[in-house]
């Protein structure tokens, strides 16, 4: 049996080899600080129609209820900041959706990491999670020292800002644990001031039911008329709070080929978006997260944006 420090070093070096930006590790257990915060957020209906957020309350706060016998939560960051963005005369989609759906890309990397761990260490039980299970990704990443949760509720790092995905491996393996870092938002309110729909209702509190990402991706009903003219040309998701954050001056382009967009995407004009066909949608958004909203949902969003500018 190797000591914990060697296991920990091995896991972090493997994560780096697989292209992860950084890797931090926490002791699996109940997230005491998060419990009242999550309860308050749900009680205020900040999750809107995302009723799944109400499910598995205990599991969200305690990974040992999610993975029996778990001892460590390994948090991983994967950069998605693009080297090029869309043309100015365009309806916008969030940068995370430019390339292949991150769920698939990261899941493959996590499987490989878990395989390496088992190959090196032995019979380790664990599960991989990418944003699709009741795991409080940002809370675990912050607890693992990968950054702090900013006033816009995204994880922030001084070195690379916030344009990255968060994923976890939860394992029944004792490891060396990292420590939280300090908050460096200071008196800055750039994200709060810039939010087009005033969804950041207080520092560190986002009303998800007012967020452009919620409206353009999660909401299945008609878009609310009181939001007309407030979407700032965002057709899928929104990056405003990240774009204005001073720490994102340090964002560097990713080097994951699977996150590169189809070339047509970056040059699409508003007219191209308004006339988008099923064939174009399939070609430009092949394997993309944009497929979540389907062509019908995307057309709904574009029509709402177009009508709003009349």
UniProtKB/TrEMBL annotation:
One of its GO terms (biological process) is tRNA queuosine(34) biosynthetic process. This is Epoxyqueuosine reductase. It comes from Flavobacterium pallidum. TRNA binds at residue 220. Its EC number is 1.17.99.6. It catalyses: epoxyqueuosine(34) in tRNA + AH2 = queuosine(34) in tRNA + A + H2O. GO terms for molecular function: 4 iron, 4 sulfur cluster binding; cobalamin binding; epoxyqueuosine reductase activity; metal ion binding. Its cofactor is [4Fe-4S] cluster; cob(II)alamin. It is an enzyme of class 1 (oxidoreductase).
């Amino acid at each position: 049996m190797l000591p914990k420090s060697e296991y920990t070093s091995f896991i972090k070096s493997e994560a780096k080899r697989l292209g992860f930006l950084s890797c931090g590790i926490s002791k699996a257990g109940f997230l005491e600080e998060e419990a009242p915060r999550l309860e308050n957020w749900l009680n205020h209906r900040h999750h809107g129609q995302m009723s799944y957020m109400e499910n598995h309350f205990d599991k969200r706060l305690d990974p040992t209820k999610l993975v029996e016998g778990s001892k460590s939560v390994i948090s991983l960051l994967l950069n998605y900041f693009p080297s090029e963005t869309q043309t100015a005369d365009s309806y916008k989609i969030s940068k995370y959706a430019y390339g292949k759906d991150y769920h698939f890309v990261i899941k493959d990397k996590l499987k490989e990491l878990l395989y390496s761990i088992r190959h090196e260490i032995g019979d380790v039980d664990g599960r991989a999670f990418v944003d699709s299970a009741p795991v409080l990704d940002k809370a675990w990443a912050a607890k693992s020292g990968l950054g702090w949760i900013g006033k816009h509720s995204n994880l922030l790092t001084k070195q690379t800002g916030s344009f990255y995905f968060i994923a976890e491996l939860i394992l029944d393996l004792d490891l060396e644990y990292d420590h939280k870092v300090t908050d460096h938002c200071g008196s800055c309110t750039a994200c709060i001031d810039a939010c087009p729909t005033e969804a950041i209702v207080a520092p560190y509190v986002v009303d998800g039911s007012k967020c452009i990402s919620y409206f353009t991706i999660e909401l299945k009903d008609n878009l609310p008329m009181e939001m007309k003219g407030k979407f700032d040309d965002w057709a899928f998701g929104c990056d405003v709070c990240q774009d204005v954050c001073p720490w994102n001056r340090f964002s560097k382009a990713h080097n994951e080929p699977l996150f590169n967009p189809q070339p047509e995407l970056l040059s699409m004009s508003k007219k191209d978006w308004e006339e988008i066909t099923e064939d174009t949608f399939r070609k430009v958004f092949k394997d993309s997260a944009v497929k979540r909203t389907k062509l019908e949902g995307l057309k709904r969003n574009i029509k709402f944006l177009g009508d709003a500018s009349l």
